[in-house]
User: Fold this.
Amino acid sequence: MTAYLITSVSVVGAAPTDLLIRDGVVAAVGPGLTAPDATVVDGTGLVALPGLVDLHTHLREPGREDAETVESGSRAAALGGYTAVCAMANTSPVADTAGVVEQVWRLGREAGLVDVQPIGAVTVGLAGERLAELGAMADSAARVRIFSDDGHCVADPKLMRRALEYVKAFDGIIAQHAEEPRLTEGAQMHEGEVSTRLGLIGWPAVAEEAIIARDVLLAEHVGGRLHVCHVSTAGSVEVLRQAKARGVRVTAEVTPHHLLLTDVKAETYDPVFKVNPPLRTAADITALRAALADGVIDVIATDHAPHAVEDKECEWAYARPGMLGLETALSIALDVLGPEWDLIAERMSRTPARIAGLTGHGVDPAPGVPANLTLIDPAARRTIEPAELASRSRNTPYARMTLPGRIVATFLRGEPTVLDGKAVK
Amino acid sequence: MIKHLLSGGDLDADTATEILDTAAEMATVAGREIKKLPALRGRTVVNLFYEDSTRTRISFEAAAKRLSADVINFSAKGSSVTKGESLKDTALTLQAMGADAVVVRHPASGAPHRLANWVDGSVVNAGDGTHEHPTQALLDAYTMRARLGRLAGLSVAVVGDVLHSRVARSNVLLLSTLGAKVTLVGPPTLIPVDIAGALAPGTDVSYDLDSVLPNVDVVMMLRVQRERMNDSYFPSAREYARRYGLDGPRMRRLPEHAIVMHPGPMNRGMEITAEVADSPRSTIVEQVTNGVSVRMAVLYLLLGGNNR
Assistant:
């Protein structure tokens, strides 16, 4: 195994120092390190963070390998500074059995670019009718701990209660896509002024808030662990704030796009801006950013959702919802939060690793810890060109936007997956 | 002149007035023995209809033919999610055929906006989903002006299922631009959120038809589908008709000069009774006639007929 000596790098924003990586771990941290056998990486001007961890990634394999594969999505993740991603269960077949989650887990190992941690479905076929074999997935080689029907809400309150209760046996967590389905039938975008003008059926904020309010009460009642996916409204933030104050075991994520883009983007009718939950208003963005800073929202998760060209180059109503996120998330965080490196590390690495139970990840570089880390050039600015992304899909909402920050290198257990801003394999 | 007509909001007051004035000239052609002008000879107009709408299609077809354009009717059922050709591929086909204008009716809001990205010719929105129907608003404005002599200062009530109405959206935008005051009337479930902010700041909303009627110059009744009651927008067709339908006694609450409009097709007995629809106040048949003149004006001006 090659050793790497990263010189004059700022670890999570601290004064520059040297990092020596050897045998998969951080061997030494301190100024003036020497290691004649090591490959030197000049870290001048760069910031080292623990490798980013995404709680919410759609890798599309098995089933939609034309849109993304475990390998292409892993490469996109590594280029985005990630060392671990949690792969959502809405594949085809659905990841609702030990067999499918083990397949995804194995494909991740074979790609070897990030740790791919499968998420299991809560219900069989995401149909919301009966529990999938959650214990079998937990006991499988994939060691599933997060369960989610993401894309669909576990709308039946009894089923949700049972799920929250049942996974306590193996310290599992239910990640809810909070969307009351009866309130969003046919919905195309945020319900408000813009949906009225555009004549598109509205997705009201209350459809998200009502489910979160119910679920935090259920989690409180049974003592289970709830995670709320892609929180998008100011009202949801208030529900979460109150629940956390009462001590409910709930965590929440927000996506980069919900921190930056508003429903006004729909005015072009370009479905690259169609996503579920939908882009909301400037007031929601303000509330989400504040919640991210004060900890009511624990995590930035990408909801990376690749789609084939034909699923986006069509009428708005017929397009699939979702947008790419892995290769731009850090830049959006930097744009939205500024160079608050400790906060970024907390929201994009340490906390998501803790929620997912990924023990080797989310740990700041220190002697003896697994060398999962990423190097960022905060001074760089780059213009997003969809054709240059590593994802198989092109549905980024940031096309031709200029964003701060560039991932220079990413290390997974001491091996570079990205060097000089390029994927190693 | 603008290139496409996608929304009532695309028109400023001068452009809208130019279209209405041109339509008045076109109307004189209809009175002639030979109802035809050579203005668009050699130009190709495609009617691309993804929804059945015989009345709108034949209105556009008559308009284009009276201007001597070549008309191609392209009836495309289905959508990109069902089987069939995608809108983009259809657009490229029309482009390859050299369409100078594409008149598009589509069940998805915004489809004409997408189409405009993919063809070089002019796109005319002939109704998209629950979004807009700008030529309907133009023919409505034309009808009001013809009957009442002006648009500025008129008070117009638009009554019914505003939420799902492309006619209402286009009318609010165009009438506001032309200085009329619009009041939207219907049950709260059928009035979309933030309508004034979304479309035009001066727009009023009322849930009480009877209180609005004595103060309006125009009452425009929108088609209301009975099936909406199955989605709890209102309890029953009977209750809807009782609260928001226009019948004889209600019509007599209108000022003497006020007119009654309806974009058609009507649900007689639901939003309007036969007595009202067939009364002298009703402009429903004139609206159809005026539709052809207005669409002639739109095609003529969009295709640069006035520059030749």
Residues 8-132+288-307 of chain B form a domain with the Rossmann fold fold (CATH 3.40.50.1370). The two ends of chain B are 14 Å apart (CA to CA). Chain B touches chain A at residues 79-81, 86-88, 106, 108-111, 113-114, 128-132, 166, 169, 192-195, 197-199 (CB under 8 Å). Chain B is about 40% helix and 15% strand.
